[in-house]
Amino acid sequence: ETGVTQSPTHLIKTRGQQVTLRCSSQSGHNTVSWYQQALGQGPQFIFQYYREEENGRGNFPPRFSGLQFPNYSSELNVNALELDDSALYLCASSREPNDEQYFGPGTRLTVT
Amino acid sequence: DAKTTQPNSMESNEEEPVHLPCNHSTISGTDYIHWYRQLPSQGPEYVIHGLTSNVNNRMASLAIAEDRKSSTLILHRATLRDAAVYYCIRDTGTASKLTFGTGTRLQVTL
């Protein structure tokens, strides 16, 4: 099995801009979850997609949105970036929603 | 409230066993306990999970108290590669939403 991959590794954006982060899940994994991890904190759940439909959402505003594609790839989109959006963004895939999750290495987003 | 309580940090010598405690006093009967760890500059990694009985796998053992209000992750022989932040998580079963706390930073020394 190939692992979960994310791109890009690092990204710098300006406040107010929009960003798209990408994740490639393990083959056969129908579920992808996205997390935001601020420096020194544990990851915070953003949302989960199962079979291309949103399947749960954490306490994040609507400017955080996502897509999941049939080829096991997914995207996290963030509009109107704010300074507080600077964080490590992690995606995690699993076969089914309640199975163990396999995390990617993350994308480090810096908003200036 | 799906929070758990863990010590901020712990230290261990290499080759010695490590017992990482976690309190989850408000746990409900159907909540699983998951442990993940995060090595420096990496995403979290699944370690083990359980419901009521003690669990063992190739990485660790999980001892769950009889009243389920606490649990202990046991690394039988710590190595330098086990230095990481260990997260104890209550899985309330809501769309696999994992609620991470700040975890326990484990330092392993020679």
Can you characterise this structure?
The complex is a heterodimer of chains A (112) and B (110). Chain A has no helices and eleven strands. With 112 residues, chain A is mainly β. In chain A, a hairpin with a 4-residue loop joins strand 7 (64-68) and strand 8. Chain B has strands at residues 9-13, 18-23, 32-38, 45-50, 55-56, 61-64, 70-75, 84-91, 104-109. Chain B is globular, with a radius of gyration of 13 Å. In chain B, 35% of the residues are buried. The model of chain B has no long low-confidence stretch (mean pLDDT 91). The A-B interface holds A 4, 31, 33, 35, 40-45, 48, 50, 55-56, 58, 90, 92, 94, 97-106 and B 34, 41-46, 49, 85, 87, 91, 93-103.
Please sum up the structure shown.
The complex is a heterodimer of chains A (112) and B (110). Chain A is an all-beta fold.
Largest sheet of chain A: 7 strands, mixed
The greatest interface here is: A-B, 28 and 22 residues
| Element string of chain A (H = helix, E = strand) | EEEEEEEEEEE
Q: Given the structure, what is the number of helices of chain A?
A: 0
Mean pLDDT of chain B, nearest integer? 91
Kindly state the number of beta strands of chain A: 11
- Helix-and-strand structural type of chain B: mainly beta
Proportion of β residues of chain A?
Answer: over 45%
Runs of chain A in which pLDDT lies below 50 for 5 or more consecutive residues are none
Q: What is the residue-mean pLDDT of chain A, rounded to a whole number?
A: 94
**Which descriptor suits the 3D outline of chain A?**
globular
Enumerate how many helices of chain B there are, as a single number. 0
Please provide the ordered H/E string of secondary-structure elements of chain B.
Answer: EEEEEEEEE
Note poorly predicted spans of chain B. none
How big a fraction of the residues of chain B is strand? over 45%
Helix content of chain A: under 10%
Secondary structure: helix percent of chain B: under 10%
What is the CA-atom radius of gyration of chain B, in angstroms?
13 Å
Strand order of the largest sheet of chain B: 1-9-8-3-4
The first-to-last residue Cα distance of chain B is 39 Å
